[in-house]
Amino acid sequence: MPQCVEFQSGYLVQSQQDTASCTGYMLVTPQEFTTFQSVDIWSFEPVEAGKFFGFSFTLILICYLVAWGFGELLRFIR
């Protein structure tokens, strides 16, 4: 379980603060560190990348359709 620690006189001292409101450093085991890294890498990035790709693709498609519509309108007027 992660513990909140602080430096006092050059030593790490366990703090009585809850881990959610820790103002010092979090002390974790190697297994907890690996778990936190795997959760951060595999659950955060793909979602954001997917949102960015969807937004970009939609924006490009809308711009293309608007330009095509103006082109057809100009061709009709001539």
Task: Describe how the helices and strands are arranged.
Elements: E1 3-8, E2 11-14, E3 25-27, H1 30-77
Short description:
The chain is of the alpha+beta class.
Which short descriptors sum up this protein?
single chain, 78 residues, alpha+beta, three-stranded antiparallel sheet, 1 helix, 17% strand, rod-shaped
Care to describe what's here?
A three-stranded antiparallel β-sheet has the order 2-1-3, with no helix packed on it. The chain is rod-shaped, with a radius of gyration of 26 Å. The relative contact order is 0.09. It is an alpha+beta fold and 78 residues long. The longest helix has 48 residues, at 30-77. The chain has one helix at residues 30-77; strands spanning 3-8, 11-14, 25-27. It has one domain (3-77). The mean pLDDT is 86. The chain is 62% helix and 17% strand. It is built from one helix and three strands; from the N terminus they run βββα.
